[in-house]
Amino acid sequence: MKYLNICFLFLFSYYSFGQKNVMVNDLPEQDSIVYQNLKQQFAKYINPAPDSALIYVSKIKQFSLDRNYSIGIVEAPYFKAFYFKRIQKLDSAVLYFDTASKLARKYKYQRGITLSQNGLCRIYYFLGQSENAIDACSECLEVALEMDDLPIITDTYTAFGNIYSRQNNMKMAIHYYLKADSIHSKTPQRPDIIAATYQSLGTIYEELKDYDTAIAYFKKANDEFKKIPADVTFYLNTTDLHLGSAYYHKGNFELADSLLQKTYAYFKEIKEEGSLARISTYLGLIRLNKNDLNQAEQYLTEGFRLNKDKLFSYETALTALELGKLYIRKNEPQKAIYYLNQVLSNYNDDENTLLQQETSKSLSEAYALNNNYTKAYETLEQTYKLKDSLSNIHNLASIREIDTKYQTEKKEQQITLLKSQNETIEQQKQNQKTLLLSGIGIVTIASIFLYVLYRNRKKTNTKLKEIDALKSNFFTNISHEFRTPLTLISMPIEDMLLDETLSDKKRQQFTVAKQNSERLLELVNQLLDLSKIDEGHLKLHIQQGNVLQLISALSESFSYYAKQKNITYNIDIAQSSEAFWFDKDAVEKITINLLSNALKYTPENGTVTCKAYIENNKLFLKVTNSGKGLTPYELNNIFERFYQTNEHNQGSGIGLSLVKELVSLHYGDIEVQSIQNKEISFNLNISIDKNSFKNDTIVIKSNNKIEKGIPLLTNIITESDEEFKDSELPILLIVEDNDDLRNLLKQSFEDNYNVITAPNGTIGVELALEHIPDLIISDIMMPEKDGIALTKELKSDERSAHIPIILLTAKAEVESQFTGIDIGADDYITKPFDKKLLILKVEKLIESRKQLQLRYSQELVLLPKDIAISNLDEKFLEKVQITLDKSLVDPSFNVTEFSKTVGMSRMQLHRKLKALTGLSTTEFVRSQRLKLAADLLKKSDANVSEIGYTVGFNDHSYFTKCFKEMYGCSPTEFISKQ
To answer: Of the given ranges (61-65, 402-406, 758-762, 960-964), which has the lowest mean pLDDT?
Structure first.
């Protein structure tokens, strides 16, 4: 039987972060020491006491957030993923590895991306999702190769080997293992990575029945683990598990039993059920060889249950195969047929042909034992077909040939390299003698001259750099200092403006104060941008999107201001649905600065024109305004920092200087033209071709489709990128295009809810379908997709129809409220609103959903009309009911099959059932089975074991345990009470 190693995964977190030359550590020395101690404590507890390790994950997160330490913000969900991996909650582990990967991209932490994708690769591997595992490993390897990060590259090669080994593609597996080993040979890696490779090679040779070589590799793995300066009890026990299996296959049952009993006790103590599942299986096999069939059945049944509970499909298949063979020996063919059919129909996800062949062969025996000779013949015929179709991949001689060639080639390379090095050294010595005498005189004279020149230049350059650095630091520091008091000023103003009792006069005063605080913040941000440009720290973040529609939306926002000044405002933006590559923030700042500048200096009854179009992968933007024009001197200095054409003009002279810098950074040109007493025109073009951008530009990849009419910007950051602080809290989605109001609402709810936010309806719908929140608060007036369209789309989708939606709007007319309620909104609040009232409404809506969940928990079976919130929910629950009626009593019925049947992803089904019933998918299926069992116990004369098997429980003790947890008494006690 083949079980690939996982032990080093937990150790990986101990070594991986904090490596030199990965990212500059911006923590003060004392904070850095504290942070390293927190990570060491996590590593200390993750294996023996994972719940204690989780405490340190929370401390790491809070420590990093308090100091805005980006590496720690990435590491916190990464370590939390290891916690869930350790306690075998693989779906949660996937979520947190994915969260860490997203945050690593957000903070541009390359090593964080590789480690998170490596973790995803291995989780997908255990879930039997080989394609997802290969994709994650490929992404990890791509970034690691760019970084030339040998530890990650080596470990990823090992992970690839594990995936192909599981698919029984031994040739590819050994290829990747030897690639990893070749790196170890040239540049020795950390002991945990070397040990992982040795474990994997040992597993390959165990599969090939070369047990002596396998045992040698496993012992070498333990030797490497012992070199690690940490508690390695967990890892030694994991390798001993592999040794035990190898000794079992070799026929040394006593030694195998001794090792496996020891590891069984250890993993039982720390509740590591994944390893327990494998050990139980092997202990069962040892009992089979001793002909102790009853104890063998006990161990194998335990292994099957644990593997099945942990969704280890391949391992479940192997154990089911052994149970089938056991029941053939016990002359119980029907049980044998059941378990063997489970292998072929439910658990061989990777379609391992060797496993199919062995299972078919045993199934043929079981049918014959059951006197079904037709089935026995058909199955035996299929066995021989499989045998004939097997390739030479699993041929020990072929694998040994590859290994031998590799070892020989490696030795020849070492000899050639050594010979080449010796020849090179001799040639260098000869050349040095020839050149030494002829060059010594010239070098001496030249070095004196160059030294004097260098010393003078160095002094001058150092002084200039110091002056320039002082200037840049001054602007940066003072700009940062402004942000804190500005924040403290703006927040109370926003709270006051939300107060409905505020008089019109005071509201006007606070509005003016808010506008000026925003203007001051804008100036501060511009200073920071200029400072970053000076220091070379401002980099483009290009992304794919509809740049013309972005400019169109920005230019439309100035229409009201132009109307107030009685200015004729013309917008001439070409229409296009094509997506190009550009920096959204840069284009926004360029457009807003040019338009606001034009409107500010245009006299009343004047004209402003904004024109934009695309030609030859370049964006052309022209902003023209009527006015007195500029003098030649003003034209020459208009883009100079802090220059103003008139000292009485409002403004700081920063905006146009920033525009020019951003245009240059975006590989473009800008020029200004002026006709005296007539008009001023700014003309610019920037590249929007991805190939134009340099390597140091940050490119944000997109898998999204570009839809017509939507200015898709694929890197919009929302709080959904951050991990939920408490998975038990309700999820609240806030959709609001006003940044200030969105942040204020987030702050109001984040203590009691997991809050995710979206800046428009398009992204709001995507996040709603991705996360299935418990409630949505949405503005009505938004760009791209408004709140009415969002509500209509979500309420007509079966996945999201149950979600309560509260709409916010500035429109107070009753007709507007009718529209919102008519399309399915659950409540409607007009702006300005009372924050306490909104919080109360949210609480009451979620509480009403919990009442429906409580009603379900008291029902005997699923009653759609009593539980459903909408017609779509009723249809969904009817679909669930049909699925349960068909498959509930089938022991093989699992979450994956359930989600496929109802047409949802596992997470969407989980969130939907959680919202309607208060139970996860697994808990829901179990509760339905137990309710059906309770009903049968009341009405049927069958015994407890028969009823347990009837409703889908294979294990009598497990059925009794679950029944007692739900009803507070055993099935037998339940019958006696009736």
So the answer is: 402-406
Q: What is the dihedral of CA 816, 822, 827, 833, to 10 degrees?
A: 0
Please give the DSSP secondary-structure letter assigned to residue 730.
P
| CATH class, 541-699 region | alpha beta
Strand ranges for 666-767 from DSSP E: 669-675, 679-687, 698-699, 731-735, 754-758
Q: Quick one: three-class SS letters along 589-619?
A: HHHHHHHHHHHHCCCCCCEEEEEEEEECCEE
End-to-end Cα separation, the chain, in angstroms: 48
- Domain 719-852 falls in which CATH fold? Rossmann fold (3.40.50)
β-strands 679-687, 669-675: how paired?
A: antiparallel
Beta-carbon contacts of 79 under 8 Å, excluding residues fewer than 6 positions away, are: 13, 39, 42, 53, 56, 57, 60
128 sits in the region (left: phi over 0; alpha: psi -120 to 50; else beta) called left
State whether residue 248 is helix, strand or coil.
Answer: helix
Distance in angstroms (rounded) separating the CA atoms of residues 832 and 202: 68
| Residues 6 or more apart in contact with residue 629 via CB below 8 angstroms | 674, 675, 676, 677, 678, 679, 680
Confidence of residue 685 (pLDDT cuts 50, 70, 90): very high
pLDDT value at position 322? 87
Closest CA to 24 of 70, 73, 82, 77: 70
Instruction: Pick the more confident residue, 624 or 541.
Output: 624
Residue linked to tokens 């023209």: 624
Burial, 949: exposed, middle or buried (Cβ in 10 Å; 0-12, 13-18, 19+)?
middle
Q: Where are the domains of the chain?
A: 8-123, 396-527, 541-699, 719-852, 859-977
Closest CA to 169 of 8, 344, 399: 399
Reply yes or no on whether the pLDDT at 787 is more than 70: yes
Q: Which of 176-185, 561-570, 808-817, 890-899 has the lowest mean pLDDT?
A: 808-817
Q: Which residues contact 518 (CB under 8 A, 6 or more apart)?
A: 490
For 690-702, b where at least 16 C-beta lie within 10 A, e where not — what string?
Answer: eebbeeebeebeb
The helix (H) or strand (E) run that includes residue 544 is strand 541-545
Query: Picking from 152-156, 396-400, 640-644, 738-742, which range would have the lowest pLDDT averaged per residue?
Result: 396-400
Q: How far apart are CA 666 and CA 853, in angstroms?
A: 54
**What long-range pairs does 332-338 form, CB within 8 A, spacing at least 24?**
333/366, 333/367, 333/369, 333/370, 334/370, 336/362, 336/363, 336/365, 336/366, 336/369, 337/363, 337/366, 337/367, 337/370
CA distances from 738 to 192, 333, 522, 537, 815 (A): 50, 68, 16, 28, 24
CA 777/CA 842 separation, integer angstroms: 9
> Which CATH number applies to 859-977?
1.10.10.60
Cis peptide before 832 (omega within 30 of 0): yes
* Length of the chain (residues): 978
- Characterize the bridge pairing of strands 731-735 and 669-675: unpaired
Vertex 336 angle, CA 330 and 339, to 5°: 140
Report the DSSP beta bridge partners of residue 675. 679
- pTM for the full model? 0.35
| Higher pLDDT among residues 107 and 190, named by residue | 107
C-alpha distances in angstroms, 787 versus 328, 802, 810, 835, 873?
63, 17, 12, 20, 21
302 vs 812, which has greater pLDDT? 302
Could you tell me the two tokens for 76? Answer: 């916190």
Q: pLDDT class for 733, splitting at 50, 70, 90?
A: very high
Handedness of CA 884, 890, 895, 899 (dihedral sign): negative
Q: Which residues pair with 625 in a beta bridge?
A: 608, 680
**CA 550 → CA 252, 557, 577, 583, 818, distances in Å?**
72, 11, 11, 11, 32
Alpha-carbon span 750 to 732, nearest angstrom: 9
